[in-house]
Write a structure and sequence with these properties.
heterodimer; A: alpha/beta; Rossmann fold; 2 domains; B: 2 domains; 10 helices; about 75% helix
Chain lengths: ~250, ~280
């Protein structure tokens, strides 16, 4: 159960204002789609949520506490590419989070501890349909499989928030809808709060429980530098129909 | 205007057999040219030293490699090889370890980069042979100064190259590792170093030529044994029948190391082949 509160956030690089007066409250277990034209600051906003950069002004609270100054395991991430480590096999990529957590200064596990971590990793790989490719290197996996691997790798740390930076942008349409449904199911099962940056509006509405558009209010050439983007559009939506079914089932059972 | 029916030169490729033949051709041509030149000179003057016949070279190899030296009782070629390779090995090993440690630190940690990169860049421009006298004065004429010259000659280049390779790692990887709970040390040890190992082999392969250069230069100036020492010693007697096989032997060693490193890279880091930009 994770709420995110963004209060009066500004982001400036020198003279250039990128984001201004961003305010919004995100209730627990939301799936937020962030959309907007190129250069509107939606990826910058994601980097703020990741602590990859720090807001010039304003505060971001996660469950009421100020966001940590470094990227931490409470916030998992999947980028469009380069999310997985090329020198590790699929299962080693997923195990890495556990090895670092339990493996001491060298971040390595041996013997029994390693076998336990490996079986935990295999379980997650199974969940994203990659059990068969566990011993392959990422370069031997297709784009869709690499992204599923990146998701599995992030999930093993049980993050409370998952940040997705155009994660499905480079995938073929057929593969993409497959990974969409996988992503929604994982979101529903884990009760994470998800932020996803995307260029694809249909994807934004299919996956999101809320779609937030960033845009600049002033677009004249001479205004571009001194006026940043802010939230132009913010709407609640229903994600894919099968989530409603799951919701109904859960309500009936509960 | 009708276009020509023939393929352009840049679009024509030899078949596998022809390719192999073409690769061998320059070597064969070189040997033929040598033997013809040698015959001509020896016909004019049987005592000519410049281009000894293949028989004379074979005799010299027999003498240097398979018969004990009359004065010392040792087999000179092998003694020289061991002496040179231990210097080369020590220098290259030290330079590689230094290059890896400093290079990863500079590439990964902003404070290390700000502190060291300008210094290393300037340091790398010092001509190593110009400081050789300083090394002889400081470390004496023994083994240390030769090893230090090799380190001095190749470590700055290796360090800069590795630092550059580290900084080329996508920042996504570094961020991702942090979201998996990794500390700076974890990232260096589990993410950066393993990805650098095959790249260090590339750097090493490119540095080996320079390492040989510095080794032979140091041996030429002050040594009691070594491949470079022998060549420069025998130069006084114009003993081309020994110098030529020594040069061939050094070349053979260098080519074998290069080949072995390449094979080792593919065997130890199978994931890397698909990563690299074609060399």
């Amino acid at each position: 159960m994770t709420e995110v509160s963004v209060q009066d956030v500004w982001m400036e690089y020198g003279d250039q204002i990128v984001l201004e007066r961003i305010n919004f409250e995100v209730p627990s277990h939301s799936f937020i789609s962030l959309v907007g034209p190129s250069g509107c600051g939606k990826s910058t906003f994601l980097r703020l949520l990741l602590s990859q950069e720090r807001a010039t002004r304003g505060t971001i609270l996660i469950d009421g506490k100020a966001i940590a100054p470094n990227p931490e395991p409470d916030r998992g991430v999947v980028f469009q590419k380069y999310s997985v480590f090329p020198h590790l096999t699929a299962v080693e990529n997923v195990m890495l989070g556990l090895e670092i957590e339990r493996g001491g200064v060298f971040g390595r596990l041996h013997g029994r501890a390693r076998r336990i971590a490996r079986s935990e990793a295999m379980e997650i790989l199974e969940g994203v349909g990659l059990a068969e490719s566990a011993t392959k290197y990422p370069s031997a996996l297709s784009g869709g499989m690499q992204q599923r691997l990146a998701i599995a790798q992030a999930l093993i740390k049980k993050p409370r928030i998952l940040l997705l930076d155009e994660p499905f942008g480079a995938l073929d349409p057929g593969i993409r809808s497959e990974v969409h449904d996988l992503m929604l199911r994982l979101w529903w099962d884990t009760k994470m709060t998800v932020f996803m940056v995307t260029h694809d509006l249909s994807e934004a509405f299919y996956l999101g429980t809320r779609v937030v558009a960033f845009d600049r209010k002033r677009k004249r050439e001479e205004e571009l530098k001194r006026y940043g983007a802010s939230i132009a559009f913010d709407t609640l939506t229903e994600p894919a129909p099968f989530i409603a079914d799951l919701k109904a089932k859960e309500a009936a059972a509960g | 205007m009708p276009s020509s029916r023939r393929e352009r030169l840049i679009n024509r490729h030899p078949g596998p057999a022809a390719g192999r033949l073409l690769a061998l051709a320059p070597f064969a041509l070189f040997l033929v040219a040598y033997s013809v030149g040698s015959e001509i000179r020896l016909a004019e003057n049987p005592n000519d030293k410049l281009l000894p016949s293949f028989n004379a070279i074979a005799d010299a190899i027999q003498r240097m490699a398979f018969e004990p030296d009359r004065r010392t009782g040792s087999y000179l070629l092998w003694e020289d090889t061991v002496a040179s390779l231990s210097r080369l090995g020590a220098g290259v090993l030290l330079a590689t370890v230094m290059g890896a440690i400093i290079g990863i630190a500079v590439g990964l940690i902003p404070y290390a980069r700000h502190t060291m990169s300008a210094f290393i860049a300037v340091f790398a421009m010092i001509p190593p042979l110009a400081v050789l006298p300083i090394l002889f004065i400081t470390f004496g004429l023994g083994e240390v100064s030769k090893v230090v010259l090799i380190v001095f000659g190749i470590a700055p280049y290796m360090t800069r190259d590795i630092a550059l390779r580290v900084s080329e790692l996508p920042s996504e990887q570094i961020v991702k590792a942090q979201t998996l709970g990794a500390s700076t040390w974890h990232i260096a040890w589990r993410i950066v170093l393993p990805q650098m190992l095959p790249r260090i082999i590339d750097t090493l392969r490119l540095s080996l030529g320079a390492a040989w250069l510095f080794l032979i230069a140091a041996e030429a100036i002050a040594a009691q044994s070594g491949l470079g020492y022998r060549i420069f010693l025998l130069r006084r007697y114009l003993a081309m029948d020994v110098i030529l096989p020594y040069v061939f032997w050094i070349t053979f060693l260098a080519v074998s190391f290069d080949y072995a490193l390449r094979k080792y890279q593919g065997w130890a880091h199978p994931w890397f082949a698909s990563q690299r930009t074609p060399a």
